[in-house]
Amino acid sequence: MKERKFLALEIAGTIFIIFLGTTLHFTFDFSGRNPLVGSFSAVNESVWEHLKLPFWPSLLWMLIEMYPLRKAVSNFFASKTISTIVMIVILPVVFYAYTAFTEEILVVDIATFMIAVIVGQIVSYKLFKKDKPSKRTEIIALIVIALLAVIVVVFTFYPPHLSIFQDSNTGLYGFAVP
User: Fold this and answer.
1) Measured between alpha carbons, how far is 97 from 58 in angstroms, rounded to an integer?
2) Which of 73, 75, 120, 134 shows a CA-CA span of 20 to 30 A to 64?
3) CB 90 within 8 Å of CB 115
4) Please, which residues have CB within 8 angstroms of residue 158's CB and are 6 or more apart in sequence?
5) Distance CA 144, CA 109 (A)
6) How far apart are CA 71 and CA 86, in angstroms?
7) By the 8 A CB rule, do 165 and 159 touch?
8) What is the DSSP letter of 165?
């Protein structure tokens, strides 16, 4: 019965993350380019800003899922942190792999986002069933996810001048006004 509950929650999480992540692509402009909203939404068309689309919804889902699963899953934070990292690694890897051979294709980008979320949630589900990690592992996972959250926000406003941070439409970086 426990595995069915895990599976149901991860399927619900997949739908939640895809829906909210898609919404976050547009919320910055809808907010009138509010900097606070920009911390959580894509502020431009750079690859980096698109990592927010699975990151923040995954983090929110982790907080939602924590209540029903925290006591049932001994490796909850480690599983969810690894799952989130898987999602945010898949996006740039696939993007740069396929754009090395062709131009950017919107449908491929959307499919990549959805596949990244699905794979991440599968990873989470599989890890839930693994052996118990130490409390230390869970604490490290919490620190890693917190550091990632800080980095995502800081690099929105102070991005390094690397191609992953450059808006493909304007050539600008981060939270910049064209």
Assistant:
1) 24
2) 134
3) yes
4) 174
5) 26
6) 24
7) yes
8) G
Residue with tokens 């996972």: 141
- Residue 87 and residue 117 in contact, taking contact as beta carbons nearer than 8 Å: yes
Q: Where are the beta strands (DSSP E) in the chain?
A: none
Cα distances (angstroms) measured from residue 53 to each of 36, 73, 75, 159:
15, 26, 24, 17
Identity of the amino acid at 15: I
Q: pLDDT tens digits for 78-127?
A: 999 999 999 999 999 999 999 999 998 989 999 999 999 999 999 999 99
pTM: 0.92
Separation of alpha carbons 147 and 106, rounded Å: 30
| Neighbour count for residue 54 (Cβ, 10 Å) | 26
Residue 77 vs residues 117, 148, 170: alpha-carbon distances, Å: 17, 14, 38
